[in-house]
Amino acid sequence: MKASRAFAVTKRVLRDLKNDRRQLALIFIAPLLVISIFGVAFTGNVKDVHVVVVNGDTAVGNSSLSDKIISNFDTSVLNVAYANSESEAVGQVQNGSASAVIVFPANFTQSVAARASGQTSVAKENVTITLLADKSNPNVSDPIIATVNTAVAQTIQGLGRQAPVSVDSSNAIYGANAQFIDFFAPGILCIAVWQLTTLLTLISFVGERTSGTLFRLLASPLKESELVAGYAVAFGIIGTAQSAVLLTASVILFHVTIVGDVLLAFGVIALLAVVSEGLGILLSSFARREAQAIQFLPIVVLPAFLLSGVFWPIQAIPTWLRPVSYLIPVTYAVEAVRSVILRGWGIDKIYPDVIALLIFASVFLSLATLLLRRRE
Amino acid sequence: MKDDVCIRNLEKDFGGFKAINNLSLRVKHGEIYGLLGPNGAGKTTAIKILCGLLRPSSGEAYVLGTKVPDPGMASSVGYMPQELALYRNLTVHENLAFYGEVFGLSKKEIETREQALLKLVDLEASKDVLIDELSGGMQHRISLACTLLHEPQLLFLDEPTVGVDPDLRATFWRYFEGLRDAGITMLITTHYMDEARHCDRIGFMRDGRIIAEGSPQELLELTHTDSLEDAFLAYSRTEGLQ
Q1: B79 touches A: beta carbon within 8 Å
Q2: What are phi and psi of B155, to 5 degrees?
Q3: Are B127 and B96 a contacting pair, CB within 8 Å?
């Protein structure tokens, strides 16, 4: 073994690196990006969750116990609105504008006072505050339940005596028996399709460029738009197949509950695959070799992994970072697929997400076509 | 007779580097025109402009009477890129079928032509073999078959014999002569000077333009040399003196 030869190899590798700015940037910037995203996303608590209070309490002003409890809500977590009836409030959860309903029963203050003073004429049971949450997302519903319980405990403590109040959160508007895996599974479907499709398109398109097949195709009657569309259909099919297998596996292995229309969910996933395919072709024009293409992977996968609501809800992502989430197509797909599978929502409710995905698809596919059509 | 290829004062500038520098040439109908020159002479760039893959910076090029780039003439032209341009994970048949479909051939047409072409390149037995499992020479023959599948009347062959052993090179030129006899026009680039004797006419290319043109015999006589390689060097030297 000759040290000089080994050193020559070392030098060559370093020179290689020096001449490839993209690789250099990835080596240093990508880990930084990952660390920052992880740090920010993990430390974030759920914030600004919309809840609707239905207050049947007739006591007003300082004497109202319900108002005291509400004033003790952590306002950074809960954003409180009011409704006149329970059905109106539940409607707001069902149309997606709120995540939970909190119901104070009629004469709440009086009932509590009566029990606390030990009047024998009233029932012994606690006065119950009913909390109806959208439990399809435990990451959101758990903090709501915790916040309400804390506020109740604080208020009672402030009174300085035992008060017979309890919170009943056993009923849910959606996802009554939802486990974390139920929340998680739709996200994993989307992220898997996103990752695989983008990577496969990227690699096969770099292959088309390096093997010369793209030259043959561009010199043939095949139009650029046809090439892009052909790929889109292929990956739409692959994406659907992939998610069908994954979903079946999660139903069998993890007993994931499916409430809604599976075909609609697959439709959304196929659309996401088309978006990913467009992105893959776009990225392929920035890579000369397969090895360079692989380097794009962290950029494609990680932000989506961390910021699109796969593992923790968008509500847990700091407000200043949320616009980034909404620039990632996966965010819309995760939201739509989750709503379909867990809440049983139809196209009438998920159409904003579908429109967002359609916009992404048309932008990416047109750009990919234009880029292929461009002649030096 | 009308020329199948006509290039007039063509220039191609790649960010300050002139790959094609005032190139003019004509390829007559039914002839094999050999574009000869060292690597970097601009041969591939010229072919890519003719196939519509690159846009000329100035000047003009006509292919079968149509000014390029024009997507309309793709089906009458066959292009064999320098790279093999085959899908390595597909079989011979799957490659041919794919390119056939791209050119709008029917299933029946693909079937009959595939049979004839595989017979021509002597690879009938390899129909269902993956490209990856074929030898380099076999891959070259399949690449040629893919180029001929849609029965083009004009062929652009970019370095078709690079990396091909002498035996197969001779075979390839036999194919080319046979195609010419069937009335197909060919523009072939190569940097193997000796094999250019098979061409009807030759253009010596250097620094993006033609430095000498004529039949192999004419070029040898004019330079008083025995080989086209010496002839090229002779022209190259005169060019350097100017």
Answers
A1: yes
A2: -115, 135
A3: no
Q: Which of B13, B14, B51 to mutate to test the interface with A (most CBs of A within 10 A)?
A: B51
Tell whether B163 is within 8 A of chain A (Cβ): no
The type of residue at B204 is F
Reading the block at residue A285, the tokens are 């024009």
Is A221 near chain B, with CB under 8 Å?
yes
CA distance A283 to A148: 47
What is the nearest CA distance from A173 to chain B, expressed in angstroms? 51
Q: Report pLDDT digits (tens) over A254-298.
A: 778 888 999 999 999 999 999 999 999 999 888 888 788 888 888
**CA angle, corner B191, sides to B186 and B196, nearest 5?**
50
* B9-58 residue pLDDT tens: 999 999 889 999 999 999 999 999 999 998 889 999 999 999 999 999 99
Domains in chain B (CATH in brackets) are: 3-85+152-241 (3.40.50.300)
Most B CBs within 10 Å, among A200, A214, A216, A376, to test the B interface: A216
Q: What are phi and psi of A82, to 5 degrees?
A: -120, 150
ipTM of the complex: 0.92
Report the CATH fold assignment for A49-174.
abc type-2 transporter like fold (3.40.1710)
